[in-house]
Amino acid sequence: MSDNGSVAAATWEQVELARHPDRPYALDYIHAIFSDFFELHGDRVFGDDHAIIGGPAALDKQTVMVIAQQKGRTTAERAMRNFGMANPEGYRKALRLIRQAERFQFPIVAFVDTSGAFPGAGAEERGIAWAIADNLVALAQARVPIVTLVIGEGGSGGALGIGVGDRLLMMEHSIYSVAMPEACASILWRDIARKVEAADALKLTAADLKGLGLADEIVPEPPGGAHNDYGVATDAAGAALRRHLGALEAIAIDRLVEERYQRYRKIGA
Questions:
Q1: Half-sphere exposure (Cβ direction) of 114: Cα atoms closer than 13 Å
Q2: Could you read off the pLDDT of 202-222 as tens digits, one per residue?
Q3: Alpha helix (H) residue ranges in 154-252
Q4: Cα separation of 223 and 228, whole Å?
């Protein structure tokens, strides 16, 4: 195998690890890191979307607003949570929580884990693109600290809909990209079989994003991946969240919002 082929194969291994069905999901992290999590439901417009969960929780003695994408583990739960792919009402629920966090001055902690927003006809009819765009604006302007942690997959606008923040953390074997490899291969080459090549071209691993200056920290996982020891993975994630939230809270809010704006303005420069 050529050097390029070896690199591409290694990248695809990271994709498979990020998607491992036994990895800890958002609720596993939430229950391990926080106490008194109180889940809020519904977007007050259409209904409740189980692919996105959220509500206030206690991090030590501080209240934070948790927003997360939740995949299902059993067949029934995967169907109920739509494999972590949210509809517009999921993003509108998240928007409601963002605004509540601002009102009560709760820092926001977001757990990203989705292959993308749901691409169905109903989602389009109910304004999926508009809902995600509203969230991008709300998160960019929110006058509270925001820390985002990618725990598995971070795919396309579906991830960005809850993923804009002051700090981006990534679990060691997570991925984050403008599109998932299969979608990229289909769009560029009309050949899903080239997904391994696409994954390498997308530079989607935690190490890639850290090297590009997009990720602020890679959170270590136990040997072989987070699915091998939930306790080690969630402890490392909790320590990283505490550290970054503490640093952000020491920054004046006007400066924090300006730095967030500049952070996204300079991407790709």
A1: 32
A2: 999 999 999 999 999 999 999
A3: 156-163, 181-189, 195-202, 206-211, 230-249
A4: 7
